[in-house]
Each structure stands twice: as structure tokens, then as C-alpha cells.
Design goal:
This protein is of the alpha+beta class and 216 residues long. The chain is built from four helices and nine strands.
């Protein structure tokens, strides 16, 4: 039975699902303007980044009409997805004096974050209002490499900002989500059980062949 274990582990490894990667959208100057195929709770979405007020960016900022995510859990999951899948990749442009570099290292290259220091950027995913005055949002805060070895680390949290008419600061941008036009199509792989069965069958046949040759 011990001889079967390495093969079983190999077969189980072959049956593992491939990792998903979003497709980044970068303009000619190297700014990260959005991404397609971002997985949030198992569903692909597209996202674009825009600075300004929620009223202007979302055409009124009405949670029932203008916002895709309307719960705190969805907004938090979307924010974490930005950190895990989008705020990555190499910047090919020449805006940041330290380029080429990663968007994770120089988050000021994310559209809407206009601070010239390129040190941090927080993407806001709005999902509702509290008391009609506080805009509830998911925060995806991306700290640049200048903060390495400090207590400041990338994080996704829930919070609020004042109203729908207040413009974002120079280190903030809105994440505008929409149903994805991209469908994730991983390379088809045989099912794990099928692979495991095939491997075990091959071992059995191999043993029988050896026994038959020994008896002759």
C-alpha cells in the first residue's frame, strides 16, 4: 500500500484547479484604469477606477439603482479581491519616476489617486447609506513599497465617508463594478477521481504482469 501513496499524491496534484488571474487594463501612460474577470465570491466582475464624488461617478449613487454591491459582506469581498487580484502587475509607463515597478509598489499609478508621491491608494466600493448622510463603503487600501517594514500593510475593511457629494481625496478612488464581459475558461482537466482510478488500475495490471512473468 505504501507504494501506491506517491502515485495517489501525484494524481491528486494533477486534479487541482488552476489559479485565476484578472486581466489588468492599463492606459498608454501606464495608469491602471481597471480590470476584467475579477472573481468575487466565485463570480467574475469588471471594475474601473474613477475619482470624484459618488453622486458624479455613479450617476446619483442610489444603492437600489446605481450600485452593484449592496451588502457589507459583498463590498468587503470585492475590496479584498482588488488587493489579491488587481493591485498587482508591472507598470509599463513613465509616470512614476521609479518605474518600471509593480502597482503594488507604486499604488499612485491607480487611476483616481492623484497624489504625486505614489505611496498609497484606497479604492472605495460603496454599498449603501447610513442615516442618509454617511456613505457606507468597503476600503481596499494599497500601501506602496515605501511603507515596507512598517506597521502599515495592505488591508480590506468596512467603513464610511461623508455623503455622496464629497469628492475623493488624492489618495482615494472609487471602484466601479459591473458584470464581467470575460468568462474564465481554465484549461479542461480530467477529474481527480478519474485520474486516481486510472493510476490504480495501471498499478494493478503492472503487478499482475510481473506475477505472470515470474511463474513462467
Amino acid at each position: 500500500m505504501k507504494k501506491l501513496l506517491p502515485l495517489c499524491l501525484l494524481v491528486l496534484g494533477l486534479g487541482a484547479s488552476p489559479a485565476h488571474a484578472a486581466i489588468l487594463v492599463v492606459d498608454g501612460s501606464g495608469m491602471l484604469t481597471g480590470a476584467t474577470g475579477v472573481m468575487v465570491n466565485g463570480t467574475p466582475y469588471d471594475v474601473s477606477f474613477q475619482g470624484g464624488s459618488c453622486n458624479a461617478v455613479f450617476n446619483g449613487c442610489d444603492p437600489l439603482v446605481d450600485l452593484l454591491f449592496t451588502s457589507d459582506l459583498d463590498a468587503l469581498a470585492a475590496s479584498q479581491a482588488l488587493l489579491d487580484q488587481v493591485f498587482l502587475g508591472t507598470n509599463p509607463g513613465n509616470i512614476d519616476p521609479f518605474t518600471p515597478g509593480l502597482f503594488d509598489d507604486h499604488p499612485g499609478l491607480i487611476q483616481g489617486c492623484t497624489n504625486g508621491a505614489f505611496r498609497e491608494c484606497t479604492a472605495l466600493t460603496p454599498y449603501g447609506f447610513s442615516g442618509g448622510t454617511l456613505l457606507l463603503v468597503g476600503f481596499a487600501t494599497n500601501y506602496g513599497s515605501v511603507f515596507d517594514n512598517t506597521a502599515l500593510i495592505d488591508h480590506a475593511v468596512l467603513g464610511s465617508v461623508s455623503g455622496g457629494g464629497l469628492p475623493t481625496s488624492d489618495v482615494q478612488t472609487f471602484a466601479v463594478w459591473s458584470p464581467s464581459t470575460v468568462t474564465a475558461n481554465p484549461v479542461p482537466e480530467p477529474a481527480t477521481v478519474t485520474l486516481l482510478s486510472s493510476g490504480l488500475a495501471a498499478l494493478v495490471l503492472r503487478r499482475r504482469a510481473r506475477r505472470a512473468s515470474t511463474r513462467r
